[in-house]
Structure formats: C-alpha cells, structure tokens
Amino acid sequence: MGCPAKKVCNRLCGSALLQDEPLVGRILEAVVAAAQGTGVPVTLKTRTGWDRAHRNGAAVARIAEAAGIAALAIHGRTRADFYEGEAEYDTVREIRAAVSIPVIANGDIDSARKARDVLDSTGAAGVMLGRAAQGAPWIFRDINGLLVQGVVPEPLARAAQRDIVLEHLQSIYTFHGEDSGLRIARKHLGWYGKLLDDTPTARARFMAATDTASQFACADREFGAWCEQTADAA
Ligand SMILES: Cc1cc2nc3c(=O)[nH]c(=O)nc-3n(C[C@H](O)[C@H](O)[C@H](O)COP(=O)(O)O)c2cc1C
C-alpha cells in the first residue's frame, strides 16, 4: 500500500488504498486468514498517508495490528509527495508509537550513519533501503557493521566489488533466464556502471550486448580493467 504510480492508484491499488480504511481492514483480514496455518507472516508496507492533509498512517497501522499483521514498513512520505522532499521520520516515529508490532523505517537511508540516526530518532525495529542499494549492495555490510560492531568497515576492495557484480549477474541469468535476464541485468549494469571511470562508454557496451554470455564477458572485461587500474595506481 505504498506504490504511488498513477496507473496503480487510478485503480485504487497501492497507496490509493490509504484513502479507504475499512477496505484496508477487509483486505488485511482476508490475507491474514488465507495465510493462517502456513507459518508465513503477513507484513504490510505503506506510506504515511495519501497527502499531507490526510496523514492517516497511524490509523492504518492500528488497523493492520488488529488484523494480525506481523510487521509494518513505512515509507516516510505521503503519496502526493511521490519521491520529493525529505522522508518524514517524525511521522514514522508517531506511527511506531501507535502500535506494538515491529515498525521498519524506510525512505532516503543512504549510509550506515543515516541508518543509525533513523533507528535512534524513530525507535523503529529496523530499517529498509531501496535506491541506495542499487549498484551498491555492499551498503548492507556497512550498515550491519555499524549497528552490530559499532564501526563502519573499511570500504570493499575493487576486486571484491567486481566479484559481487559478476555473481549478481550470474544469479540474475539463472533466476530470470536468457531474455528477461539480459534485460534485467542491463538495469543493474546501468547502476554498477557508475563505479567505472568512463561510465558512458562502458554503459553503451553493456547495452549493446544482445545475449547474456556477451553481456557477462563485457562486464568481466570492464570491471576487470577497473580492478587493474587500482593495481597500477598502487
Ligand atoms: C524503481 C523502484 C521500484 C520500486 N518497487 C517497489 C515495489 O515493487 N514494492 C514496494 O513496496 N516498494 C517499491 N519501491 C519503493 C521502495 O521500496 C522504497 O519504499 C522507496 O524507494 C523509498 O526508499 P529509498 O529512499 O530507500 O529508496 C520501489 C522504488 C523504486 C525506486
């Protein structure tokens, strides 16, 4: 119940549901009832409300808790705010205070320090990240380092980053197959490509590959050369 897309909200799905609290209750009760006995917890993700004049995130959280929802993730923006402005962590804190189920704070968390600050300021049970993990999945290692050991680990060496990129590509191909795998990997290579020194050229090469084998070989070459550059510099 967080998606802001017009084509979703026009059908009264996604965050548009926040405008109809009784319907939210009925949907959640039905989903929780359907999952009963499976051992699978049902969780909910919402925004803070439809717009700034209707921030009903706390009311929706209470409805969710009463329906048996196990945990709640809150993207700290209203639907009307799309991705504009700063996430409202104050509202996330208010929602957290309204219920006893775990609340997970989401929105604009892009570093270990920010994750720590958001946890402290909202009292949330956890944090959720989206965009900051695109092209940088090692951010979770940094965050866990700070939260668990109290220090952000040294940045990963280029070779370790390259290994993660290549392993990620292989996983995408295995999971999605040749055609979808090629397309989905392009999107990730677009993000990973920002690491490279000559991003536009590398990006053009990634996009030009017409099968997963040549796409992988291209990524292997580009990121391999990128690792060599540090060796030269050293
Ligand atoms: C390209 C894109 C696709 C997304 N798809 C989903 C989705 O399918 N389901 C969902 O709950 N949130 C989705 N989100 C929202 C994110 O989960 C998250 O709530 C939002 O990006 C704010 O967090 P962030 O600042 O860490 O990115 C998507 C966000 C982006 C940018």
The CATH H-level superfamily of the largest domain is Aldolase class I
Order of helices and strands: HHEHEHEHEHHHH
Instruction: List how many beta strands DSSP finds.
Output: 4
CATH architectural arrangement of the largest domain? Alpha-Beta Barrel
Number of helices: 9
* Nearest-integer average pLDDT: 96
Q: What is the multimeric organization of the chains shown?
A: single chain
| SS-derived structural category | alpha/beta
Runs in which pLDDT lies below 50 for 5 or more consecutive residues are: none
Radius of gyration, CA atoms, in whole angstroms? 21 Å
Determine the CATH topology of the largest domain: TIM Barrel
- The order of strands across the largest sheet is 1-2-3-4
Helical residue percent band: 55-70%
Q: Classify the beta-strand content into a percent band.
A: 5-15%
The CATH class of the largest domain is Alpha Beta
- Structural domain tally: 2
Distance between the ends: 50 Å
* Small-molecule binders: flavin mononucleotide
Largest sheet: 4 strands, parallel
Quick summary:
This protein is α/β, with parallel strands linked by helices. 55% of the residues lie in helices and 9% in strands. The mean pLDDT is 96.
